[in-house]
Amino acid sequence: MTTTAVVTGAGRGIGLAIAHRLRAAGHLVVVTDVDREAAERAAAEVGGGAVGLEQDVRDLASADAVAAVAAEHGRVAVWVNNAGVLFAGDAWAHPDDELTTILDVNVRGVISGSAAAVRTMGSDGGRILNIASISALTPVPGLALYAATKAAVLSYTTSLEGDLRHAGLPITVKALCPDVVGTHMVTSRENDPHAAMLFSGPKPLDTDTVAAAAMSLLDSRQTFRVVPRWRGVVARSADVAPSVTGGALALMRRLGERRQSRG
Ligand SMILES: NC(=O)c1ccc[n+]([C@@H]2O[C@H](COP(=O)([O-])OP(=O)(O)OC[C@H]3O[C@@H](n4cnc5c(N)ncnc54)[C@H](O)[C@@H]3O)[C@@H](O)[C@H]2O)c1
Questions:
Q1: pTM, whole model, 2 decimals?
Q2: Residue ranges making up the domain that contains 114
C-alpha cells in the first residue's frame, strides 16, 4: 500500500533534500511551498509520482487541505513541518511585519501543520518532524527573534510528544535542530551585519547531511537532536559553564563580523 509523506517549504533547501530521502525510503512525497513553481519543480525532481502543491503555511486552513490531497494518494505516514523564514537584526528593532510574518510562518505554521498531521494520521499512526534550529538551545547574536520562534517549535514538539503518548495515539513527533546550513536562507544574508554569527562557525552543513540526520532522528527514540551532535553538547554546556559560553559567543560574533567584512 502506498504511503505518503508531506514536506512543507520543500521547493528548495533542506526541505527538498528531505523530500529526496523520503522518496528513497519508499514514500510518495507531497512537496508544498508558498512558491508554486518551486513546489512543482521540486516534485518533478523528486519523482516517483511526487505531487507539488502551492501552500502558504500562514493560511491555517491550508494544512488540512494539503492533508486531504496527501490522503488521496495513500496513508499519510510522515509529515515534515520545514517551511521557515529568517529575519536578523537587533531584537528591539524589528518592524511589525517581520514580527508577524516570522511568528505566522515559523510558529503558527508548525503548530497548524502538526495538528493537521495528527488529525489525518489518527489511530493509524505516523511520524511528524518539525525543523527547529540550534538557536532554540543557545543564544545567537542578531537572531533573537528567529531563535524565539525555534525555541517555541522545540517546546511545542516535546509537549506534543507527551500529549500524544498520553492520548495513546501511535504518532511520534520530533524536532531537528541544525547548525548553520548553506541554503538560500543563509547565503542571501552574506552581507548582513546583523547575522554575523551565521558565518562564524566552521563550514556550513550541506542539505543532504541534514536530511540524513532527519531520517535517522525519525527512526530513533530521541525527541530532538542537534546536527552536528557536538554542537548540541557545546550549546547545552551553557548551563554548567555560562562564563565560558559567554566568552565563546563574543569570539564567534567577532569572527563572523571579520568574515563578513572580508566577504
Ligand atoms: N539554513 C540554515 O542555516 C538553517 C539552520 C537551522 C534550521 N533551519 C530551518 O530549516 C528550514 C528550511 O530552511 P532552509 O535553510 O532550507 O531555507 P530556504 O530559505 O532555502 O527554504 C525555505 C523554503 O520555505 C519556503 N517558505 C517560506 N515561507 C513559506 C510559507 N509561508 N509557506 C510555505 N513555504 C514557505 C520558501 O519558499 C523556501 O522554499 C527552516 O525552517 C529553517 O528555519 C535552517
A1: 0.94
A2: 3-192+203-239
